[in-house]
Amino acid sequence: MPGGFFMLAGRTLEVECEEPSEPAGTYVAADLRRKDYDIRSKLPTINSCSSTSELRAWLLQFARGLGFYGARYIHVGTRWWRLEQTEVPVRFLTTSTRSENENKDWLAHDPCVSKVQNAFAPFVWSTRPSDWHNPKQMLWLEQERARGISAGIAVPVQDSTGGPAYLSFFGNNEPALAELVEAQAPELAFVAAQFHAIAKSMLEPADWTPTLDKRDIEVLKWAGLGKTYSESAAEMGVSARTVEHHLRKVSDKLGVKSKVRAVVIAFGLGLTEL
User: Fold this and answer.
1) Which residues, 6+ apart, have CB-to-CB distance to 251 below 8 Å?
2) Which one of 23, 59, 91, 181 counts the least CB within 10 Å of its CB?
3) Residue 157 main-chain phi, psi, to 5 deg
4) Tens digit of each residue's pLDDT (9 = 90 or more) over 45-102
5) How many Cα atoms are found within 13 Å in the side-chain-facing hemisphere of 157?
6) Which of 205, 191, 121, 122 is nearest to 162 (CA)?
7) In the CATH scheme, what architecture does the domain 214-269 have?
8) Going by C-beta distance under 8 Å and a sequence separation of 6 or more, which residues neighbour residue 80?
9) Over the stretch 106-136, which tens digit does the pLDDT of each residue have?
10) Nearest one of 197, 255, 250 to 222, comparing CA atoms
11) Fold agreement (4-202, 214-269)
């Protein structure tokens, strides 16, 4: 994996993005680094990643650099536009290779999801059971403890169009995690936002998300640029009525009642771009 340059806080960093020395999902013992660990000096460039496997390797390398066993990326999405009663995230990536279909019912299992919906700052989570956990969450937390995971950090990203996402780093030593969050919250938030931007353009949405054909995407593109039906029709070489028909069809697919909302959701999901 190539290296490159990365801009952060006015500094240009020349870094190497190498494959991790440990295979993903081995959960080797790792002590959490000091709270003064300099994330900026260790941050490889995410932009050099050109495939899902490279993005996963980058995430594992970054997580291990902080002393975690690994990490997960979860794009929750916005609940109110879900076309099905699904608990599968819009996008999901894990550094673990041991868990097949780990994203299945993830939104029902992970207690962090409800807090991520409205959180802006990183926070510590624990696998300790609590009275407010439901049975599905209790089972999931028990499974995490069985894998040697006792705590972690969730770093939320509030995407105004695509809905919230978060990076979830998992490991142990809850007190040290609290110190890490206190000392490095801005840096962690920056990394999560950068990772989400790349992952949203690289990872395919879940199977339950709507499928748009070429003409659907084209009408959304012109609508997103502020074109009227007539202006879009002129660009596409069709009638204004045809444009209106396709926008109505797209709105039905996305479960909304207006072309403005259809544009917002489609772009937020990453189903189309300008």
Assistant:
1) 257, 258, 259, 261, 262
2) 23
3) -130, 125
4) 777 888 999 999 999 988 988 889 999 999 988 654 444 456 777 889 999 876 566 7
5) 27
6) 205
7) Orthogonal Bundle (1.10)
8) none
9) 888 999 998 998 899 999 999 998 999 999 9
10) 250
11) no
Contact residues for 126 (Cβ-Cβ < 8 A; gap 6+):
150, 151, 174
Q: How far apart are CA 12 and CA 7, in angstroms?
A: 5
Check whether domain 4-202 has CATH 3.30.450.20, yes or no:
no
User: Would you kindly state where each structural domain of the chain is located, as residue ranges?
Assistant: 4-202, 214-269
Give this prediction's pTM.
0.70
Q: Answer positive or negative: Cα dihedral of 165, 36, 29, 52.
A: positive
Instruction: Give the pLDDT score at 102.
Output: 78
DSSP the chain: ---EEEEETTEEEEE-----SS-TT-----PPPPTT--HHHH---GGG--SHHHHHHHHHHHHHHTT-SEEEEEE---GGG-SS---S-SEEEES-SS-TTTTTTHHHH-THHHHHTT--S-EEEE----TT--HHHHHHHHHHHHTT--EEEEEEE--TTT--EEEEEEES-HHHHHHHHHHHHHHHHHHHHHHHHHHHHHSPPPTTSPP--HHHHHHHHHHHTT--HHHHHHHHTS-HHHHHHHHHHHHHHHT-SSHHHHHHHHHHHTS---
Tokens of 25: 């999902």
Backbone angles phi, psi at 190, to 5 degrees: -65, -45
User: Exposure string (b/e) for 183-209, b if CB count within 10 Å is 16 or more?
Assistant: ebbebbbbbbbbbbeebbebbebbeeb
